[in-house]
Amino acid sequence: MKWTESLSVGNELIDSQHKELIKKVNDVLEACNQKKGKEKIEEVMKFLKDYTIEHFSAEEDFMKKYQYPSYEEHKKIHEDFIKKVEELDEKIKKEGINLSIIMLVNKTLVDWLINHISKVDKKLGEYIKSQM
């Protein structure tokens, strides 16, 4: 995946956090291409747990600050993703790291990047710009 300005929400903090996530996703994809996905998954899962707390908190602070009308809906999407990350982590702990887990983590991350950042976060960015 590649960062493009079309993914920008127009907020430096949020954009830099999104760029960091894209880099991690690319690291995992590259590790999988080199048959080293197992080694990267644990690192990525730790990153994801930390990232979701920090990043979602930052986004939600902006939503509150600018009285974003879709705050509750957006927050629910964040909560659902946190739950998905926790479920993935539990699955890894129960089953270990295998090819299906690696593929599931990759799919989850890529889907999140494509659907959440380019659609949901983009709307947030446009709203914030309109309030400035």
What's the short version?
This protein is mainly alpha-helical and 132 residues long.
Main beta-sheet annotation: none
The share of residues in extended strands comes to: under 5%
Alpha-beta content class: mainly alpha
Span between N and C termini? Answer: 30 Å
The low-confidence runs, each spanning 5 or more residues with pLDDT under 50, are none
Average pLDDT, to the nearest integer?
Answer: 87
Radius of gyration: 15 Å
Number of helices: 4
Sketch the topology as an H/E string, one letter per element. Answer: HHHH
Question: Count of DSSP E strands?
Answer: 0
Helical residues, percent: over 70%
List the helices and strands and how they pair.
Layout: H1 12-33, H2 37-65, H3 71-95, H4 99-131
Helix pairs in contact: 1-2, 1-4, 2-3, 2-4, 3-4
Explain how this protein is built:
This protein has 132 residues and is mainly alpha-helical. The chain contains four helices and no strands. Helix 1 (12-33) packs antiparallel against helix 2 (37-65) and helix 2 (37-65) runs antiparallel to helix 3 (71-95). It is globular and about 45 Å long. The protein starts with 11 loop residues before the first helix and ends with a helix. The mean pLDDT is 87.
Task: Give descriptors for this structure.
mainly alpha; 0% strand; globular; 83% helix; 132 residues
